[in-house]
Design brief:
By secondary structure, the protein is an alpha/beta fold. The chain has helices spanning 8-14, 28-33, 45-48, 83-90, 101-111, 117-121, 131-138, 147-164, 180-190, 202-205, 207-229, 243-246, 255-263, 280-287; strands at residues 37-40, 55-62, 71-79, 123-129, 169-175, 195-199.
Length: 338
Amino acid sequence: MEDIQLDSQDIALETPAKDVFIAPSIHPESILSGASYSHCSPIPEIIADDLQTVCVLGVDEAGRGPVLGPMVYGLLYLPLASHRSLLAETHHFDDSKVLTPSVRSHLMQTLCTPSTDLYKSCGWATRVMSARDISSGMLKPAGTYNLNAQAMDATIDLIKDVFAKGVNIKEIYIDTIGSPQVYQKKLERIFPTTMVTVAKKADSLYPCVSAASVCAKVTRDAALEVCFESYLPSAQGEEPAVAADGWGSGYPSDARCSTWLKNNMDPTFGWGSECRFSWGTAKDLLEAKGSGTKIDWPVVENEEQSMRVTDFFTAVVDHDGVSELAGWFGKRVGEEVF
């Protein structure tokens, strides 16, 4: 995949806060093992008390372009009646790329604090798509599972999980992947009883998408922190203690990221599960002269003479025409022997 270039202002907004809130959506074991996973909050009490409450739902992502860290899809739903008043007017949710990292972190912490109005009114969920799984899908030898397809599947699965809990979702708003019209028609076929709106810049148009964007971005920020901490035990004294000062935003155009990649590349294996090996930056560094170790895998010249898995389950026939398996317990004899 081609690397996304960011200017200095965007890099600053994409860099995790140094004291980022560690939300319940952070599962360190899964993150460090390179596994993708989903997290869902409990149904908020205002909705749980009456599942007929008409609700609105928004979905957005964070981390589509970085070479380091997961891509995270966030979802948030709440009663339609308090959609704009609670999210936009009271708490001033906006696109997570516009809000500063510390403001995003504070909003997420408020959403996760039981005594707040956000906690009592809003349900949310995230899908953490690991760098390893993203690259594995994009580098498949037969039939690439591209990033758009992976993102669309994650979105659909998150929405289905909310419907499965019995929440009465009547309106869905989503920031587009590719063509808004094509994406919207697909979602309308899957969720025929719900009004679906797919739009560009939906995170700046619809408060529920803005809030979902914050869920996704703060979860990604914290996941980057977890990944970076795994490198600290073997670090030298001057190694930074937080991702913001170590590999920065994780975008290739961030000098902190590109420097970290060059200084921490294993010549044989490259990097850990936090790296997207399908990205151009990673490929270029691994293939650069003198950087990576070139490995020539053995190639079987005559495939007809090579062993196949099925060969181990096929009986061998000896020179007398007798199957090895058929004679395993000896040969049958006539009654005259007895």
